[in-house]
Amino acid sequence: QTLATVEAMKMENVLKAERRGIVKHVTASQGQSLAVDELIMEFE
């Protein structure tokens, strides 16, 4: 299942779930610039 699409250097990278789980909290917002290793979402 697709969790998010992250754009980097004009390329879109699709983040997909590797296993079942529940998203607890999304810390990033649409259009936000992210730093290396910055948290995007948390899981239960």
UniProtKB/TrEMBL annotation:
Organism domain of life = Bacteria
Pfam families assigned to the protein according to its UniProt record, in alphabetical order: Biotin_lipoyl (PF00364)
Segments forming domain Lipoyl-binding: 1-42
Cross-referenced CDD domains, in alphabetical order?
biotinyl_domain
Record protein name field: Lipoyl-binding domain-containing protein
In its UniProt entry, the species of origin is given as: Neorhizobium galegae bv. officinalis
